[in-house]
Design a protein that fits this description.
The chain is mainly alpha-helical. It is built from five helices and two strands; from the N terminus they run E-E-H-H-H-H-H. The longest helix has 26 residues.
Length: 183
């Protein structure tokens, strides 16, 4: 029998917890977000964007390690600090100046990299919902995690818009009803 076959897994402090525990929902959604960011990084063309995405993936790994420890003894030092949130905000502000937000919703898919970033954004949003649910059940040791995830999804939206523009898309595809089943 393998570890985990009975529906339990260990946290970093070796505490055995059922796999349906909200902590594993959080860890799983953050892992998915990191994987989606990996896909976006693989299809990116800009070295600067690839470096940013790798930094974001590493932040999510740090976040997972913080959340995977119940006890203070097993928990690593917080990496998601006010300074890290400010770093994220700085990237957002730089991008938003170059790619202002338009009105209304958009349909992802105007470029491969943009679509991958939109996918990552939606998974980050789910992770944020899961983290806030966990926070309601047991307050987080590091509340900056919630702030970071909220800002990260906004950054990914603007980064996706930037990728679409780099692919030659002058305006994103709007999410408006088509007429007679045609665009």
């Amino acid at each position: 029998m393998w570890r985990g076959d009975l529906g339990y897994s260990d946290l970093l402090d070796k505490r055995e917890v059922p796999k349906h525990d909200q902590r594993f929902e959080v860890l799983g959604s953050l892992d998915e977000a990191s994987s989606a960011l990996g896909l976006a990084r693989a299809v990116e063309t800009s070295a600067e964007a690839k470096a940013l995405i790798l930094d974001l993936q590493r932040d999510l790994c740090w976040m997972m390690s913080e959340l995977a420890a119940e006890s203070d003894d097993a928990r690593p030092a917080s990496h998601i600090t006010d300074e890290r949130v400010n770093w994220l905000d700085g990237h957002f502000q730089t991008l938003i100046q170059r790619h202002p937000l338009g009105q209304g919703f958009v349909v992802p898919g105007d470029s491969s990299a943009g679509a991958a970033l939109h996918l990552a954004r939606t998974i980050v949003r789910r992770a944020e919902r899961n983290v806030t649910q966990l926070h309601a059940e047991r307050p987080l040791h590091n509340p900056n995690i919630i702030v970071y995830l909220n800002r990260l999804s906004a950054l990914l939206y603007v980064r996706a818009r930037a990728e679409d523009a780099a692919a030659g898309v002058s305006a994103p595809t709007p999410a408006k009803p088509s007429s007679n089943g045609h665009p």
